[in-house]
Amino acid sequence: MESKNTVKLSVAFITYNQEQYVEQAVMSAVTQETSFPYEIVIGEDCSTDRTGQIIRRLQLEFPDKIHILSREKNLGPYRNALDTQKNCTGQYIAFLEGDDYWTDKRKLQKQVDFLDAHPEYVLCFSNACEFYDDGSARKPIIEGPKYHKVSYTLFDILEDNFIPTCTVVYRNGLIGSFPQWFTELDQCDWSTYVLLSKSGPIGYIQEVLAARRTHNSGLWSGATHMAHLQNRIKSLKVFDEYLNYEYHDFIYQIIQGLEFKIAVDLEFQGNLEASRSIALQRFSKFLQNKYIRKIDLIKLLVKYYMPVSCKHIFRKKIT
Question: What predicted TM-score, i.e. pTM, was given to this entire model?
Fold first, then answer.
């Protein structure tokens, strides 16, 4: 591994039981073309498949780049991610997980150049090509922000976790200490962006620099839509307390929008009683919420009371 005094950037690389993907991911990091030295810090979390063997073989091939963190026991994904970040020594930290990979050999160079030129920015990210690993014919999609802006703020980050994790490079040292709740939430990447964006804006490079693999064994992609909504609400409530309720009204507008989506999901699944309970209890708030279209709220209310035979009129699910 490069000397701590000369490392400009550290790659926080986490992996567990990803033997079929991990070599491609590591090689996409090792082969980056940069004008500066960088290290790849790998948190290999005691995999039970061949992931550890592959990582150790690659370390022998690239001993100046790859550093494997020793693990006596499995830490779990979030503690592993936190510990790996803490062991990064570079001025900048890049994220990469063992089932994703970088598609542009100058990804790190482009992002470091951006951050060097814009010292006010705490992080920069790019688009990623999200593709499916299930053998289906579904076309890859470009993952990134819905609205292209020069910079993004804490308000944007609270609204939605639109940053592909595999595209992130951020300034090391801005987070003095990680809160206790950091490893208790299901999206430690989102938590990191919230912590960082307290210190400054986030920059965006409008290029595809990485690929994100979607498969059923992924922690996030393998979860249901309902679980995603519930986890986001849980995270937002924790963020609200952490931010001393300074953004409380804004955050609860977002939470209400997510609660409406839960009501829609429940109705779509046939659980009318639970759906109706949410919608009617929060009706006045839903009606005034900027994240909920009035027409969608009306459609949902109509579904509660119309005969089953007529529901094909509103068959399309509200998203």
Answer: 0.89
